[in-house]
Write a structure and sequence with these properties.
The chain is built from three helices and two strands. It has a two-stranded antiparallel sheet. It has one domain. By secondary structure, the chain is mainly alpha-helical. The N and C termini lie far apart (24 Å). Helix 1 packs antiparallel against helix 2 and helix 2 packs parallel to helix 3.
Length: 86
């Protein structure tokens, strides 16, 4: 995951690295979600995208997202909406 997180952090357009990250997470066994490290992304918007994807993939796998996802402050994309659910 770290190489893809680095690609998300550095990419001019993040759609391709996010799509690759989504594919990786969708194929991951449920027990791997707890071991996912916090990505080294300093941009809060990009970090929220990746965190939301981890939370959604964990939900689809039927497991609790890693505790580190709760440490990422939610960022509103538009008034009255967020990238992540509460």
């Amino acid at each position: 995951m770290e190489p893809l997180a680095a690609a998300v952090a550095a990419a001019g357009k993040i759609a391709y690295p996010l799509a690759e990250l989504n594919g990786l997470q969708s194929a991951a066994p449920p027990d791997e979600f707890a071991r996912l490290p916090r990505p080294g992304i300093s941009d809060t918007c990009r970090l929220n995208y990746v965190t939301a994807m981890v939370e959604m993939a964990a939900h689809r796998a039927g497991v609790v997202p890693p505790l580190r996802t709760s440490d990422v402050p939610q960022r509103a994309a538009r008034p009255l909406s967020t990238l992540r659910s509460v």
